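Problem 12. The chain below contains 291 residues. Write out its predicted structure in token notation.
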Amino acid sequence: MAAPKDRPRFGPFFILGVFFALFIGLPSSWKIFTQSAFDEFQAPIWEITSRISDLSNYWGHQADSKKTLISKNRDLARIRADWTVHENNKKNWENEISHLKDLRSRLVVLQKEIGIDPEVSFQPIIARVTHRNLSSWWQELSLRKGSNQKISPGMGVVFSHGIVGRIKRSGFNSSKVELCTNPNFRIVAHFQGDDRPVTFQGDGILPGGKPIGVVLDVPHDITIEKGKPLFLKTSALGGTFPSGLHIGTVRMLEESGDGLFKNGKVILHKDLGKVPEVSVLRPTPPQGKQE
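Solution.
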């Protein structure tokens, strides 16, 4: 019996090579036609796949349980309700802003008619403290910003617990703050709940680092009940600070030497000499005016 002949191992590759050579030798028009025909052949397959995906998504939603559908409708209703509330709040805010603008314009007209200058507004400039001089002679802070950041002498300086002092000197990128404990520091102030002006003056730093000041020219009818100290606030009359900033606490008042007014010690915030960062209050020009 004759042995079977071995089949050629490279027969399929030979046939594939022949077809590839024939394809390479075809004119370009035939290649374009063949590619277009192949794309047209694939198009129905892509369309069927897309429709199957849409149908699967549809039946997937149809198969949701009743509880799932209720939950989805509840979430949709909540989103719509939130959007409605947002739109209503937006309208209310717009009405409030319009009302405030109208009141501001009327206030400006009244101030012009009466001849009262409008209260000065301020722009805060944040500055880091670089050095502290808290000797018995000087109470000063050095800041990292100066005239290049539009800081100039006379500007008020504040921190989170009230006033710090005012700018004494300013260089290009540094400035000196005269602390409110310095005896040369004086501003107009008033007690909380009483608009009558009084005078605040620095009185140094006691041993242990306790900063203090004095309040002068206090009217006689202002008294302090035991356990109920009075809070001293800034006044807009001086122009250095806006009205209502905290200065300190007064626990006792006594008669002055002339007998016309009262005086008292003002206890300032204990962190006044340790503050790491302050805000310098730069006055801004009134509306309609430019610097």
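Discussion. The mean pLDDT is 78. Students who got a different answer should revisit the alignment rule from Section 12.3.
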